[in-house]
Write a structure and sequence with these properties.
Number of domains: 3
Strand order of the largest sheet: 2-3-4-1-5
CATH topology of the largest domain: Rossmann fold
Number of helices: 13
Distance between the termini: 34 Å
Largest sheet: 5 strands, parallel
Number of strands: 7
Structural class: alpha/beta
Shape: elongated
Oligomer: single chain
Radius of gyration: 23 Å
Length: about 260
């Protein structure tokens, strides 16, 4: 059946109501966050010594015997078996098509995937079934992004000025993963400050680099495993007054770009 984000609470409080859920959509950050949180909540009262195996698309598409063996493994406790399935790299259903027709009692499959079109077999199966639910996570609006920043900082007892908030968004875009990373760096920078209000100046100090060439040399040397060159660049930056938090931020962004490039290949 088609669901919405507000249905997640019912999944957690009434796990036997459904046999499984599909979390999907272009907002990979929220898909992953809710995937992990739902599993944590459903599994918190599980007394099994060994957790169920985490399955991936290769198993679902090519090794259905592994999937059904995991499904049919008898639990030693009286809880619900929770099985995580990562289908982020496909829109196909594989052996899940047969399973959704005849699900196993006291078993809940939690599936995550990426952007799925209306013609996706995986999405269609979950939407048409009365025993399973599909929940989409779309890209955040600018209002969502503002809310994300405010909620994240409130939880950590920080506040932020409007111009600082706009500046962080200009650096990070509406990418929650980048926002979270940059907010953590700023909070780390302000760790010993009594006043926990983030200003535009603080954002500049943490997220801007006034030594781009030397920073780039440090990133390149680190990526290539040239330890002596990397240490030389770091010492030079430190002697020129570069903040360690800025160096950390540059390295983090650099390797994140490499990671994103590899995923896109």
């Amino acid at each position: 059946m088609k669901g919405k984000i507000s249905d997640i609470n019912d999944l957690i409080t009434q796990p036997l109501k459904m046999f499984g859920a599909l979390l999907y959509g272009p907002n990979e950050y929220r898909v992953n966050k809710n995937f992990d949180e739902i599993y944590k909540q459903l599994n918190q009262n599980n007394n099994e010594i060994l957790e169920a195996q985490k399955l991936n698309s290769n198993i679902i598409l090519n090794q259905d015997d592994v999937f059904f063996n995991e499904i049919n493994t008898i639990m030693l406790s009286d809880g619900i078996k929770i099985i995580q399935i990562d289908m982020l790299d496909t829109d196909k259903a594989g052996c899940l098509e047969n399973y959704l027709e005849r699900p196993t009692e006291k078993t809940f499959i939690l599936v995550k995937s990426g952007k799925l079109g209306p013609r996706s077999k995986l999405r269609a199966l979950f939407e048409k079934s009365n025993n399973f639910i599909s929940i989409p996570f779309y890209e955040d609006t600018i209002k969502d992004t503002h809310g994300f920043i405010e909620n994240y900082l409130n939880i950590n007892n920080f506040s932020i000025s409007n111009d600082a908030k706009q500046k962080i968004i200009s650096f990070s875009g509406q990418n929650n993963k980048a926002l979270e990373s940059n907010l953590e760096l700023i909070m780390l920078y302000m760790f010993e400050e009594e006043e926990k209000k983030i200003s535009s100046d603080i954002v500049d100090k943490v997220l801007l680099s006034d030594k781009p060439v030397e920073i780039q040399n440090l990133c390149n040397s680190t990526a290539l495993g040239m330890i002596d060159d990397a240490l030389f660049c770091f010492n030079k930056l430190e002697s020129n007054g570069q903040q360690p938090i800025q160096v950390l931020n540059s390295l983090s962004n650099f390797f994140q770009r490499i990671h994103n490039t590899l995923i896109a290949m």
